[in-house]
Amino acid sequence: MNATDFSSLKLHPNLLKNLTILGYDLMTPIQKLSLPVILSGKDVIGQGKTGSGKTVAFGLGLLQKLDVKLFKLQSIVLCPTRELANQVAVEIQKLARVINNIKVVVLCGGMSFGLQIDSLRHGVHVVVGTPGRIEEHLRKGTLKLSYINTLVLDEADRMLDMGFQESVDNIIETMPTNRQTLLFSATCLDTITNITQRVMRSPIMVKVPLINERSTIKQYFYKINTDNERMMALRLLLAKYKPESSLVFCNTKRDAQKVANELVYYGFYALAIHGDLDQRERDQALIRFSNKSVSILVATDVAARGLDIDSLDMVINFDIAHDDQVHIHRIGRTGRAGHFGIACTLYSNRETYKLDTLKLGTGDDIILDSLPSKHYLNNPIKKPSMITLKIDGGKKHKLRPGDIVGGLTGKKKEITFNQIGKINVLSQWSYVAVNSNFVKTALKKIRYDKLKGRSFKVRILS
What we know:
It is built from 18 helices and 18 strands. By secondary structure, it is an alpha/beta fold.
């Protein structure tokens, strides 16, 4: 038996069987290092970037010890952002689909407090959420943590960076001390020493070398003479490489929106995500980017935290990062799972001094390159292959992803499963990505052929 096989672990047979069905046969480095320790019941501090597989590691750990017959909250996962909390909850639900009657609830801001109270009233096993909203539930007495046996702090470094220290402390004070605590961080563990010393018991530290994880990333640095040249440089890089999905980082919310607007003006398919957007706008931007109906997402570091996008081709630092750890986290979003990725950074004369810091932080050679020729701007801009449809029906209308797939494919098979992309079912609305060549057919089928016997309003999201 291979030591990297999940079958080498002492997991419930149903969990192992489900892992095989999901295609999770071999453990990633962070899983191989952390899972045996997690399953032994010890506290764990783990360092691994987004996409390294840490969610599966702590998800399996909390599911292994879960008592389904005890309809009490037993595990809680704290995340810095709503986006990450939703993604973690989906992954845990996937891992837990072989366990009957398990209930996972997401508690985040920007969502109906009343609906969350209703979900908690009917019993829950696992809660995933942001510190602010969970603290609010504790204050109002709608959440009890007296049966918690597993606490997970995911992206702990960013939670502290975002000012959640006091909320996290208040939450931890209300739960049993004889719990297991699992803490994961994407960047340097030194930044979280204070919290680990206070809330953990003799933790075991596991760390995946960042340089190995970045071996499939090619880094390029481009010098610009003035800040006014940044937009031209960005256009040239996008025109040359034509990435199917690329993440552009800006240091401020204002710049993120401005850059996205200018890219759209020049014909690119781009959206911005930052703290000034409301929850609906954030949700829609993330959905359209993750389902490949928008190819460029312009983001700030905080807004991009927790993004879990498969096969991200390219990262571009429109603004150079403030420090090497932020730079490492940015570029680590491409080149994942063995895929090749490109990371490009723009810098000006006054920022040249930062290059040595970045080189020391990443351990990589800095490749200084010349900007592509302007003749690339003559090339046609590649349109995304998918288009997102917004359906005016969601979980409150008992709509499920399977209902949408069934309604689109139907008996006539005018649309096949391969022409349908990601489906996101929220409380009031649902979003489905459809191949652009079949959009008219999809609109017609939803409007007139009905889903679950009902007609729903539907429109193209743009």
